[in-house]
Amino acid sequence: MTAPVDGVLVVDKPRGPTSHDVVSVARRAFGTSKVGHTGTLDPMATGVLALVVGRATRLARYMAGDVKAYEAQVTFGSATDTYDAQGTTTLTTGRHPAREALVMALEGFSGSIQQTPPAYSAKKIDGEAAYRLARRDTPVLPAPVQVVVHALTLERYEHGMATLVVRVSAGFYVRSLAHDLGTQLGTGAHLSALRRFQAGAFGLSNATSWDTLERGGDGARAGLLGIDRLLPDLPAVVLSSEDAVRVRHGQTVQVVLPLEGAAAPLRLFDQDARLIGIAEAMAPACPGATVVRPIVILG
Predict the structure, then answer these.
(1) Which uninterrupted H or E stretch holds 53?
(2) Could you give the count of Cα atoms lying within 13 Å of 283 in the half-sphere of its Cβ?
(3) pLDDT digits (tens, 9 = 90+) for 156-181
(4) Where are the alpha helices (DSSP H) in the chain?
(5) What are phi and psi of 122, to 5 degrees?
(6) Which of 42, 81, 243, 270 is catalytic?
(7) What SS3 class is residue 299?
């Protein structure tokens, strides 16, 4: 009998498949329906797509907000309805901004900003995905959202084509960045290539190739990162044997937080260094100890 499969598989997604396509192939490769992703990539985009498998699917919500890093190619002189190269051209100017003007425009995309997602996106409008409305010829722009640009640099710029490296919060649309740059500079622009090279703790060095995933078997399993390695940025507590039993039964326990005032959530490990759950702090129990309640139990 095949052992249960748990963990994270970082896939180097090629251009073409949707994120759902990748999940479907992984479900066949691992023989389980318990596969999800922690942040989509458009079909045109390539690079890091982190899949959660088995029990790790219970942790997906804690990974979806990770910082993402991309290399993006922006082409100036034309705009499209999808804000990328796969859309229908809506504006053609043939003009390219001067490098100095582009650098100045990029300076406005820093820190916490308001960004309007594309009409062709999964953002919900009155309960329906925006792209579904757009495909019915009733495109409506979603409401602006607060996003964070941690870093944005211009790596190359020639012949009206800019290569940008960007580190951003979850929910940021690089397509919108390209479109907004073209609008601001009066030339029109669209995203012509995108590669994600980092998603939280996962990078291309962890990645399994698309061909390996499609073949399945031991090759695909070899790329799985153990569930105990997940969420390294969350505080960790090692429980006594007795408290580990209580947590597995959903009971609260008293722990000494690893950092004074450490906020929930935090990871709970047993004496064998196995991740057994995620907990939230409730209230101080006595000097130096805090009551925590398990909110995800992995067993």
Answers:
(1) strand 46-53
(2) 1
(3) 999 999 999 999 999 999 999 999 99
(4) 19-30, 60-63, 99-106, 130-135, 174-185, 210-215, 217-222, 241-248
(5) -85, 0
(6) 42
(7) coil
Integer Cα distance of 96 and 182 in angstroms: 9
Record the tokens describing residue 196, joined without a space: 């994600």
Place of tokens 């990871």: 267
**Global pTM?**
0.89
Measure the CA–CA gap between 213 and 218, rounded to whole angstroms: 10
Cβ-in-10-Å burial (0-12, 13-18, 19+) of 155 comes to exposed
Inter-CA distances, 88 with 29, 78, 80, 81, 266, Å: 36, 10, 5, 6, 46
User: In whole angstroms, what is the distance from residue 233 CA to residue 239 CA?
Assistant: 18
* Residue 283 token pair: 């209230």
3-state class (DSSP) for residue 215: helix
pLDDT in tens, 131-152: 676 677 776 778 899 999 999 9
What is the three-class DSSP state of 22?
helix
In the residue annotation, 270 being an active-site residue is answered as: no
Cα separation, 282 vs 272, whole angstroms: 26
pLDDT digits (tens, 9 = 90+) for 96-119: 999 999 999 999 999 999 999 998
Write out pLDDT tens, residues 262-272: 556 899 999 99
pLDDT at 120: 77
pLDDT in tens, 215-251: 999 999 999 999 998 898 888 999 999 999 999 999 9
Cβ 120 vs Cβ 81: under 8 Å: yes
Question: Containing H/E element for 147?
Answer: strand 145-158
Rounded Cα gap, residues 141 and 281, in angstroms = 39
